[in-house]
Amino acid sequence: MKEKLLKKFSEIFGGSDGAKVYFAPGRVNLIGEHTDYNGGHVFPCALTIGTYGAARKRDDKVLRFYSMNFEELGVLESSVEGLKPEREADWTNYPKGVMWAFQEKGYDVDCGMDLLLFGNIPNGSGLSSSASVEVLTGHILRDFYGFDVSNQDLALIGQYSENKFNGVNCGIMDQFAIAMGRKDHAIFLDTADLSYQYAPLKLENAKIVIGCTNKKRGLGDSKYNERRSECESALASLQNVVDIKSLGELTEEQFAQYQSAIPDEVKVRRARHAVSENQRTIQAVEALKRDDVTLFGELMNASHVSLSKDYEVTGIELDTMVEAAWRQEGVIGARMTGAGFGGCTVSIVEEDKVDRFIEEVGREYEEKIGYAASFYVVEIGDGPVTL
Ligand code: GLA
Predict the structure, then answer these.
(1) 34-47: per-residue pLDDT in tens?
(2) How is the chain split into domains, by residue range?
(3) Type and span of the H or E element at 37
(4) From edge to edge, which strands make up the β-sheet containing 185-190?
(5) Rounded CA separation 115/65 (Å)
(6) How many alpha carbons lie under 13 Å from residue 60 in its C-beta half-sphere?
(7) Could you say which of 17, 143, 153, 174 is catalytic?
(8) DSSP labels for 360-375?
């Protein structure tokens, strides 16, 4: 991979002297969806697929970006001075956003760079290709300038850039899972205070299978920000009757007791999801610690139902794929993963049933939806590295 990137870098930017190659993973969330901006828990892991970057610092202010995933866009140029989001800058708004975020936080990012990317995460799939590019860029800047920033800082700077530069009010989960990834471990993160534990993912003879609906979506034009404000409004209503800072502080029993303070039925359901999903995530991690993979799977299934019925972020593609998955032999659990509205599902499937699973779910999906899904059997990997 390193040689492939340097060769292309040399072709595009004229020589590869002084260029280095870096990698940042994608992520999949096993359970704890739409809880990270509600002060709840999440349980994601980094993957061995992600984004590769070949990069070289320049002496002037010029930024030159090229993606092997969007070759038709050619080299996109701008300047490290006066960074602002621009529609025609396309995907380069992600690395530019991170440079801007470093500058905003007082780091002297004042040199241009040539950057070539290649991602083997399906774009727009819900496996966080954008957060992967953000953490990768942060890792490259740290290497270029020798900044004293931890991987957790890279996650926070990445999230800040996504919120303030790219206008998506995302939580911390994606950037944290990517920056803090650890091989064969999922991360049990409490988004209320960023305390976390690594949990070894002992799935016995089972594999993690990602099903990509191939329905494209961008977080910016989805209803993501709308869900977030519905939760904020529900929280404000609850705060009239109970002293809480976030929905993540409530148990399901407490929520049932106070929910009548929320005047709007839709917002009751949104908040109920945030509360119940947080409790499921805590239970799921406890189940895994006891090696109770069956309960873990049941909680994944319940998570999907809640995301479909209460949170309404699934849609026909994700529901079709997950319901087909539930019917297959050897499936421990299956649910949508990520923001929803298209994107991917995650299923835990017994190893010797994986081929049949992919064939059957793929067939049922295409029959009903009219186009094919793609499947990936993934492994859990580490955070960002210099290759
Ligand atoms: C997106 C966001 C995350 C999180 C998930 C939903 O991936 O970037 O912060 O909110 O959706 O769980």
Answers:
(1) 999 999 999 999 99
(2) 2-200
(3) none
(4) 41-42, 185-190, 195-200
(5) 5
(6) 7
(7) 174
(8) HHHHHHHHHHSS--EE
| Domain 2-200 coded CATH 3.30.230.10 | yes
pLDDT at 168: 87
Helix, strand, or coil here: 299? helix
What digits encode the pLDDT tens for the residues 208-265? 999 999 986 655 456 888 999 999 999 999 999 999 999 999 999 999 999 999 999 9
Ligand 1 pocket test, pick from 34, 219, 311, 344 with the greatest ligand atom count within 8 Å of Cβ, gives 34
Measured in Å, residue 219 CA sits from the centre of ligand 1 at 9
Strand partners, 182: 185
Region of residue 343 (left: phi > 0; alpha: psi -120 to 50; beta: else): left
Give the number of other CB atoms < 10 A from CB of residue 155.
26
Whose alpha carbon is nearest atom 11 of ligand 1?
Answer: 339
Per the document, the length of the chain is 387
Kindly give, in sequence order, each residue whose CB lies less than 8 Å from that of residue 122, ignoring residues fewer than 6 positions away. 129, 212, 344, 374, 376
The pTM of the full predicted model, rounded to 2 decimals, is: 0.95
